[in-house]
């Protein structure tokens, strides 16, 4: 390296003051000049001994500075290498996804190799495609249907802004006032969706897309309508897919049982989900579970935000996308597994906190939450309780709660 | 070690979406104001210790999501509160009209003796005003509440309203506080006390268990 080369030949005898500077090759920015210049004539000359000492001190400083500089250069080089390595592995992964996996989706998607690659995160350039495939289109929504819903939404916005009377009365039970409130809420919420990214807000490049998807959805599913939290989900999809495809993924995603339960705020069913979560919580983290119980910290307090927005509001966006990667593959179970992974990652901190500190911590997770550590933590979470899998536990609890509702004597536990 | 606080209790912020509940809270606890806040989903938490009449009060503040759909969830939190802020936006007639509905929910779900206060927020937006100050006063009088017009943006009446609600809660629990003065060592956690009492799952369930 150039540095070592130069440092390795202090051959020429140092001495005459003027030469010292040239000889050093390398000059720390600030102090050089002052120390090595001749003393101003109006000051008494330094004794030779002192001058020698100062020169020595100065040279030591230079050596130190050079060392630091070298270290910094090495650090930067390592960083660059690391970045190249990551980029190369992403590049390789993109090739694998594009050339091997996507063309053979049906046969390959559940193979061991693909699963491993999947867990490491889907490269952003193929992410949208993979999400679409993994979420599927059970609802058979076409681009045309999206256009129809969007056109209808636009009509409503227009009639709303002109203050015109209602054009249609087909959605019985959903009053004009409700609908108006919902359209206004969409507007308000768009301005409050990832505000720091400044891309979804009025005038931003993705504002209209987000508005379109949410508006079209309220026409597609007037029975569900717009519910806070949806804007975050739609926004994440928009970042990875075209508008119509984002709408298809959005509608299908919300149609999954867990999302339907939450967005329709089916409170009984939500409680069942929380109860199932607690079964696995106690199984995986008994100490923390007891601590939460003691402090009356119920899962709704932190899970509602996490589940409604699929972690997109509570985790850094790139990390949230990695959670979505696996969620699209493994389904709702992974949302709850992630929650347990987060709790486990911070178990030591949480066990030292009281109710309010825990609640604050969990509703505002650290911004620098490390991705690899979180995934390592999630990997250790067992989604099996007494030989029962998530779905089985959930079904059993659902049956229990239905029987309780019927007034049967069968009680939980 | 000095006690961190004498009394602990919970306050709740409710009101329509976008009236500025989170902004009020941020102004109070962190003295910050951001015009574009992220929406609150479910419930958010803040905490602050203030001194009222020489008593160190630690208040936990629960900031709830405003959309109607979420009320099934947020109602569950009413019974855990000792004081409630009902917030509307002076530039939104609708948010003011909805206060009646919010009040009736509070009557149904909050514990008896919960202290309430009415807040007309965004008082700085005079040019957009849809709800007159007298209307706010009138409504507050009807329900026997104190009333403040506030602005998180200009920091108007924020500290005053939080302090007032704190005083009201303290007054309502004077008896327990007397106990505190005599056994000077312990702090009083009103929040936890009420929780113990409220354990049997709330009105919906008790009626269900009756008919079987």
TrEMBL record, chain A:
<dbReference type="InterPro" id="IPR035969">
    <property type="entry name" value="Rab-GAP_TBC_sf"/>
</dbReference>
<dbReference type="GO" id="GO:0016192">
    <property type="term" value="P:vesicle-mediated transport"/>
</dbReference>
<dbReference type="GO" id="GO:0005096">
    <property type="term" value="F:GTPase activator activity"/>
</dbReference>
<dbReference type="Pfam" id="PF00566">
    <property type="entry name" value="RabGAP-TBC"/>
</dbReference>
<dbReference type="GO" id="GO:0005773">
    <property type="term" value="C:vacuole"/>
</dbReference>
<dbReference type="InterPro" id="IPR000195">
    <property type="entry name" value="Rab-GAP-TBC_dom"/>
</dbReference>
<protein>
    <submittedName>
        <fullName>TBC1 domain family member 14</fullName>
    </submittedName>
</protein>
<dbReference type="GO" id="GO:0031410">
    <property type="term" value="C:cytoplasmic vesicle"/>
</dbReference>
<dbReference type="GO" id="GO:0031267">
    <property type="term" value="F:small GTPase binding"/>
</dbReference>
<dbReference type="InterPro" id="IPR050302">
    <property type="entry name" value="Rab_GAP_TBC_domain"/>
</dbReference>
<feature type="domain" description="Rab-GAP TBC">
    <location>
        <begin position="121"/>
        <end position="331"/>
    </location>
</feature>
<feature type="region of interest" description="Disordered">
    <location>
        <begin position="1"/>
        <end position="55"/>
    </location>
</feature>
Automatic annotation (TrEMBL), chain B:
<protein>
    <recommendedName>
        <fullName>Ras-related protein Rab-15</fullName>
        <ecNumber>3.6.5.2</ecNumber>
    </recommendedName>
</protein>
<dbReference type="InterPro" id="IPR027417">
    <property type="entry name" value="P-loop_NTPase"/>
</dbReference>
<dbReference type="GO" id="GO:0006898">
    <property type="term" value="P:receptor-mediated endocytosis"/>
</dbReference>
<keyword id="KW-0472">Membrane</keyword>
<keyword id="KW-0449">Lipoprotein</keyword>
<dbReference type="GO" id="GO:0003925">
    <property type="term" value="F:G protein activity"/>
</dbReference>
<keyword id="KW-0460">Magnesium</keyword>
<keyword id="KW-0378">Hydrolase</keyword>
<dbReference type="GO" id="GO:0046872">
    <property type="term" value="F:metal ion binding"/>
</dbReference>
<dbReference type="GO" id="GO:0005525">
    <property type="term" value="F:GTP binding"/>
</dbReference>
<dbReference type="GO" id="GO:0048471">
    <property type="term" value="C:perinuclear region of cytoplasm"/>
</dbReference>
<keyword id="KW-0547">Nucleotide-binding</keyword>
<keyword id="KW-0636">Prenylation</keyword>
<dbReference type="GO" id="GO:1903307">
    <property type="term" value="P:positive regulation of regulated secretory pathway"/>
</dbReference>
<dbReference type="GO" id="GO:0005886">
    <property type="term" value="C:plasma membrane"/>
</dbReference>
<dbReference type="InterPro" id="IPR050305">
    <property type="entry name" value="Small_GTPase_Rab"/>
</dbReference>
<keyword id="KW-0342">GTP-binding</keyword>
<dbReference type="InterPro" id="IPR041826">
    <property type="entry name" value="Rab15"/>
</dbReference>
<feature type="region of interest" description="Disordered">
    <location>
        <begin position="192"/>
        <end position="212"/>
    </location>
</feature>
<dbReference type="Pfam" id="PF00071">
    <property type="entry name" value="Ras"/>
</dbReference>
<dbReference type="InterPro" id="IPR005225">
    <property type="entry name" value="Small_GTP-bd"/>
</dbReference>
<comment type="function">
    <text>The small GTPases Rab are key regulators of intracellular membrane trafficking, from the formation of transport vesicles to their fusion with membranes. Rabs cycle between an inactive GDP-bound form and an active GTP-bound form that is able to recruit to membranes different sets of downstream effectors directly responsible for vesicle formation, movement, tethering and fusion. RAB15 may act in concert with RAB3A in regulating aspects of synaptic vesicle membrane flow within the nerve terminal.</text>
</comment>
């Amino acid at each position: 390296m150039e540095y070592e080369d130069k440092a390795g030949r202090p051959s020429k005898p140092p001495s005459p003051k003027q030469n010292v500077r040239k000889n050093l090759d390398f000059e720390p920015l600030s102090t050089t000049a002052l120390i090595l210049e001749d003393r101003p004539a109006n000051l008494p000359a330094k004794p030779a001994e002192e001058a020698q000492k100062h020169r020595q001190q100065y040279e030591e400083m230079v050596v130190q500075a050079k060392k630091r500089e070298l270290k910094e250069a090495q650090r930067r080089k390592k960083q660059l290498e690391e970045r190249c390595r990551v980029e190369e592995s992403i590049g390789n992964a993109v090739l694998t996804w594009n050339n091997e996996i996507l063309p053979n989706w049906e046969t390959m998607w559940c193979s061991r190799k693909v699963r491993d690659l999947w867990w490491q995160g889907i490269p952003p350039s193929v992410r949208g495609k993979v999400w679409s495939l993994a979420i599927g289109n059970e609802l058979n929504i076409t681009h045309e249907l999206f256009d129809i819903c969007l056109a209808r939404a636009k009509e409503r916005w227009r009639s709303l802004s002109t203050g015109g009377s209602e054009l249609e009365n087909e959605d019985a039970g959903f009053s004009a006032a409700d609908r108006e409130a919902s359209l206004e809420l969409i507007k308000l919420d768009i301005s409050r969706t990832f505000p720091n990214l400044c891309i979804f807000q009025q005038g931003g490049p993705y504002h209209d897309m987000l508005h379109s998807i949410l508006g079209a959805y309220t026409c597609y599913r007037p029975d569900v309508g717009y519910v806070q939290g949806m804007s975050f989900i739609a926004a994440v999809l928009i970042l990875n897919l075209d508008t119509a495809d984002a709408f298809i993924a959005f509608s299908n995603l919300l149609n999954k049982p867990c999302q339907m339960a939450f967005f329709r705020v089916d409170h009984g069913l939500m409680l069942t989900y929380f109860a199932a979560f607690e079964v696995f919580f106690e199984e995986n983290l008994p100490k923390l579970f007891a601590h939460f119980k003691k402090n009356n910290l119920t899962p709704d307090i932190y899970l509602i935000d996490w589940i409604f927005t699929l972690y997109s509001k509570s985790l850094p966006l790139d990390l949230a996308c990695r959670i979505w990667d696996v969620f699209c593959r493994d389904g709702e179970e992974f949302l709850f597994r992630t929650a347990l992974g987060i709790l486990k990652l911070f178990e030591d901190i949480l066990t030292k906190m009281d109710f309010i500190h825990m609640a604050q911590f969990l509703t505002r997770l650290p911004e620098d939450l490390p991705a690899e550590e979180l995934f390592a933590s999630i990997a250790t979470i067992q989604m099996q309780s007494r030989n029962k899998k998530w779905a089985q536990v959930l079904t059993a609890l659902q049956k229990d709660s239905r029987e309780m509702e019927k007034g049967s004597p069968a009680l939980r536990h | 070690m000095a006690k961190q606080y004498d009394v602990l209790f919970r306050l709740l912020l409710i009101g329509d979406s976008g009236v500025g509940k989170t902004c009020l809270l941020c102004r109070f606890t962190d003295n910050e104001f951001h015009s574009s806040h992220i929406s609150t989903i479910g419930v958010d938490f803040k905490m602050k210790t203030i001194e009222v009449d020489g008593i160190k009060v630690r208040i936990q503040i629960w900031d709830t999501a405003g959309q109607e759909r979420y009320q099934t969830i947020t109602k569950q939190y009413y019974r855990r509160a000792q004081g409630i802020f009902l917030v509307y936006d002076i530039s939104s007639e609708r948010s003011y009209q909805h206060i009646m509905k919010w009040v009736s929910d509070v009557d149904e779900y909050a514990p008896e003796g919960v202290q309430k206060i009415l807040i007309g927020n965004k008082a700085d937006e005079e040019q957009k005003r849809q709800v007159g100050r007298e209307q706010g006063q009138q409504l507050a009088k009807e329900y026997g509440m104190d009333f403040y017009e506030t602005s998180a943006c200009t920091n108007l009446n924020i500290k005053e309203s939080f302090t007032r609600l704190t005083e009201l809660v303290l007054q309502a629990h004077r008896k327990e506080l007397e106990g505190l003065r005599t056994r000077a060592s312990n702090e009083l956690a009103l929040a936890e006390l009420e929780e113990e009492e409220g354990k049997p799952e709330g009105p919906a369930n008790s009626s269900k268990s009756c008919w079987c």
